[in-house]
Amino acid sequence: MPKWPGNSKYVKKLNRMTVLNIIKDNESISRQQLARMTGLTPPAITQIIRELINMGFVKEVGLEKSCGGRRPVQLQFNPEAGFVLGLEVTRHETTLGIADLKNHPTDIRTFELDMTDPEAGIHQLSETIRQVINNSKYRDKKFLGLGVAFPGLLNLKEGIVKRSINLGPKWNGFPVKSAIEREIGLPVYIENNSNASALAERWFGGGNDCTDLVYINLGEGISAGIIMDDRILQGFQGHAGEIGHIVMVEGGPLCNCGNRGCMESICGIPAIVRKAVSEMPFIKEGDPLKEIWKINGKISINDILKSASIEGTYSNELLKQMGKYVGLAVADVINLYNPGAVFIGGKMAKAAEVFMDILKQTVNSHAFPEIAGSTEIKLSALDGNSGVIGACALALRELLKPNSSILEDMQAYADK
Ligand SMILES: [Zn+2]
User: How far is the CA of 257 from the centre of ligand 1 (A)?
Assistant: First the structure.
C-alpha cells in the first residue's frame, strides 16, 4: 500500500478504497485479517471500518468459526449500499440496466427511442430514466453513477462524440457525457460499445478469470473490445479495436469507412444481406431463403439466420463463408495480442452453431499453434445484453477504483 508523506488525505482515500475492495472481493473477512492483508495498524482498520459501516458499505455479520481464542466479528460488503445505471444506446432502441455494487444487473429494459438527434434524444432518454428510478422499487435507493455504451468514436477525455455512423452526423462533436450528467445529476462514464462488451465479459461473463481477452461484435458493424492486462486497450487516441476494417480482399466491396474489401464490407449484416440479394437468381428453387424472397419480394438478416440452421441451404453456406473470414481476422487478433479468450458476440452470434466450427478450423490453420492452443474461442453468454451489462460494469469499475471519490461523495451526501 503506498504511503507518501505529506499527502495524508490521498493516502486515506487509497487506504479506504483498498479496504473496501478487499471486503467486496471476499465472502466475509475479519478486521484482523484486513490488518494483516493491508499492513495497516489495527486502530487504522477500526477507524476505516467504522466509517464504512456508517456509510452503509459494510456490515457486521455472525462470528467466525472458532479455532481457539477470541472469535472475531466478520465483515461483509453490502452490495445494496448503492446502485448504478447502465445504458446501451443505439439508433432506435436504448437499453437500460440497473445493478447493485457487486452483481450482474438484474433489471434490464429496452425502450424505443429515436436517438438520431442528440439534444432531443438525451432529453427523452433522461425522462425515461427518471421515470424508472423514481418508481417505488428504486425511490429510496442511492444511485451513484451511470455508464454508457456508445456506438461510435469517442474522445474519452472530454466525453465528446467524434463520429457515430450508427446514430448519424448530428452527433459529431456532441458533448454526450456532460449533457447526460446535466440531465441526470450523476457522474457519467462512457465507452464505445465494443469496449463495454469486453468489460461485460470480464466482470460478469465468461472472462471473469481472464485478464487478457478480446470481444468481437458481429453485427451491423464489426468491432472489437480488447482487454490486456486487465485494462481496456485504447490506443493513442482511444480508437483501438477497429477489427472490422482489416482489409481481407484487395479491391473488394466498398465499406462504410470508404475503403474497399474490409471485413465489415464482407461479414457485416448489410453486406451479408446484399450478397444474398445479388445471388438470388442463382439460388436453387426450393431453398427456404428463395421461397421467402418469392413470397415477400425481400429478405432480412432474420430470414438468413433462420434458414441457416438447415444444413445444405444457401444461408447455411453463406454463414460458413462468413465464419471463414471471421476466422482469418480472429487468427490475426490471436497472433497480435495473445489473448486468453476471444468472445464472439453481436446479432450474428445467434447462428454461431453454423459457423463456429469453421471459424475455429480457420484460426487453427492460420494462427501460431503455440498461441492459438492457449486461446479459448467462446460464444458470448450474455444474451445480446453485453453492451448494457458492460455499461454497468464501467460505472462500477470507475466508482470502485483505488482513487475513486465514492466514499467522499457518500459522506458529503450523508452530511447534507
Ligand atoms: Zn472499412
Answer: 4
pLDDT band at residue 145 using 50, 70 and 90 as cut-offs: very high
| Residue 326 grid cell | 471471421
The CATH classification number of 81-200+387-415 equals 3.30.420.40
**Which stretch of DSSP H or E encloses residue 328?**
helix 314-337
Q: In angstroms, what is the span from residue 259 Cα to ligand 1's centroid?
A: 5
- What residue ranges do the domains of the chain occupy? 8-77, 81-200+387-415, 209-381
pLDDT per position as a tens digit, 346-388: 999 999 999 999 999 999 999 999 888 999 999 999 978 999 9
Tell me if domain 81-200+387-415 and domain 209-381 are identical in fold. Answer: yes
Q: Which residues pair with 378 in a beta bridge?
A: 343
Phi-psi sector, 230: left (phi>0), alpha (psi -120 to 50), beta: left
* Contact by Cβ (8 Å): 47, 38: no
The chain-wide mean pLDDT, for the chain, equals: 93
Distance from C-alpha of 330 to C-alpha of 357, rounded to nearest angstrom? 13
Question: Helix crossing, 352-366 with 314-337: angle to 10°?
Answer: 40
Distance 202 CA to ligand 1 centre (A): 27
| Cell of residue 183, nine digits | 440531465
CA of 130 to the centre of ligand 1 (A): 38
C-alpha cell at 164: 457515430
User: Of 76, 25, 9, which is closest to residue 49 (Cα–Cα)?
Assistant: 76
- Segment 262-287, tens digit of pLDDT: 999 999 999 999 999 999 999 999 99
* 217 CA distance to ligand 1 middle (Å): 15
Distance 327 CA to ligand 1 centre (A): 17
Cα 300 to its chain centre, rounded Å, is 27
Please report how the helices 8-25 and 386-400 are oriented relative to each other, as an axis angle in degrees rounded to 10: 140
Q: Does domain 209-381 have CATH number 3.40.50.2300?
A: no
Centre of ligand 1 to C-alpha 261, Å, is 7
Ligand 1 midpoint to CA 239 (Å): 14
Instruction: Reply yes or no on domain 8-77 having CATH 1.10.10.10.
Output: yes
Predicted TM-score of the model (pTM): 0.91
Instruction: State in Å: Cα 192 to ligand 1 middle.
Output: 17
Spatial distance between the Cα atoms of 345 and 159, rounded to a whole number of angstroms: 26
> How many Å lie between the centroid of ligand 1 and the Cα of residue 270?
13
Q: Which residues pair with 254 in a beta bridge?
A: 260
